[in-house]
């Protein structure tokens, strides 16, 4: 029985590090998307495909675009920093592990505070969810600047925005469900 507990502790730690690596990698990709979005100038008249002057996006929409990009960046950075901190805590715990030998197998016994780890995962997930929400709102503003405002009734704008407003929240709900499931089990 002791060998099974040791194997689970070592395997669980590897799973935790892999999960944290996944969070960091996804946040890095989204952060790259935010930087690409910030490099784009929304006030450049060559960026718009709108012919009707009534449908041209206001400067307020361009300001919101920049704000949402910054909020998104800060949320992804926060989430990644929390995940990196958790990963470092696990590594520090692994270096202070005691090694036990059972027959021909060697096991490392690491003592990681599972409640602290769960709370850290939850905080990191909240940062990722907020970052995705802000990035989605920034993309809605990009669509309004490029294709015309939503109030104008442009079918192209609605065709771009509606799938975004359906699939991103749906994906976030699924993500939150699995994070909460992992948090409680």
TrEMBL record:
This is Maternal effect embryo arrest 60. PANTHER family: MATERNAL EFFECT EMBRYO ARREST PROTEIN (PTHR33430), OS07G0240400 PROTEIN (PTHR33430:SF7). It comes from the Eukaryota. Signal peptide: none annotated. The keyword Cytoplasm does not apply. The chain crosses the membrane at residues 20-40, 68-86, 119-140, 160-183. Keywords: Membrane, Transmembrane, Transmembrane helix.
